[in-house]
Amino acid sequence: MDQNQLKRLAGEAALTHVRDGMVLGVGTGSTVNCFIDALAESGLQLEAAVSSSEATTERLKSIGVTVSDLNNAGTLELYVDGADEVDAHKRMIKGGGGALTREKIIAAASRRFICIVDHTKVVDVLGRFPLPVEVIPMARSYVARQLVSLGGQPELREGFETDNGNLILDVHNLSITDPVALEQEINALAGVVTVGLFARRGADLVIEAQGSGVRDW
Ligand code: 5RP
Q1: pLDDT (tens digit per residue) in 8-18
Q2: Which residue in 12, 85, 103, 183 is the catalytic one?
Q3: pLDDT digits (tens, 9 = 90+) for 112-154
């Protein structure tokens, strides 16, 4: 099975947690796109969805799902999203698609977070995938210097602006031995909007697609 088929498998498996009439939080990325495609084919009728990006909003609307503002939705029962990396403690690196801030807000506002991945995303130690950090444009250089002092090599994501009008620094070669502490440390830097470490609030369930099928853990 190729990676796209595995993403499709993970997306389909998440549907078993979705109920008619739900207001569902929906993440961003190619795995989530597979989930949205599977949702369209399932016949499930959501009351509405809360979306983590303009791209996801467009895709949800194209299949007839009403997209609500989180401010009007209250606490969400369920959030479904992908990840760039996930470890055995269900802590993640996210933001490869640049939607990390809205993703982290929806994750925080949801009772359950189901992470859908193919097996290539599961790691022993987070950090092989460059860690995305969303920054206010005027803070770019300052934050980059601070990230260097933490041992990383930040690289500006060229030609990219987030849905919030900010920039992304992708930080290479960080040794993430304590994800919770690093999340707090980077979040505390002036000018950082969000770091793509999802450690303090990780996933509640991981749906991992492998060649042999799907494993929930
Ligand atoms: C977007 C994300 C995505 O969940 C992450 O990048 C995984 O994407 P994909 O499913 O395309 O591999 O965090 O900001």
Answers
A1: 999 999 999 99
A2: 103
A3: 999 999 999 999 999 999 999 999 999 999 999 999 999 999 9
CA 160/CA 22 separation, integer angstroms: 33
Token digits for 18?
């979705």
Supply 103's token pair: 């993703």
**DSSP letters along 149-198, please?**
HTT-EEEE-TT---TTS-EEEEEES---S-HHHHHHHHHTSTTEEEESEE
Q: Checking DSSP bridges between strand 197-198 and strand 92-93, what pairing results, if any? A: antiparallel
97 CA distance to ligand 1 middle (Å): 5
Q: Which domains are assigned to the chain? A: 3-123+200-216 (3.40.50.1360), 131-195 (3.30.70.260)
- DSSP 8-state symbol, 112: E
d(CA 216, CA 13): 9
CB 121 within 8 A of CB 87: no
**Cβ proximity of 129 and 141 under 8 Å:** no
The counts of H helices and E strands in the chain are: 7, 13
Which 3 state secondary structure label does DSSP give 82? Answer: coil
**How many angstroms separate the alpha carbon of residue 96 from the centre of ligand 1?**
5
Where residue 175 falls among pLDDT bands split at 50, 70, 90? confident
- Cα separation, 171 vs 208, whole angstroms: 26
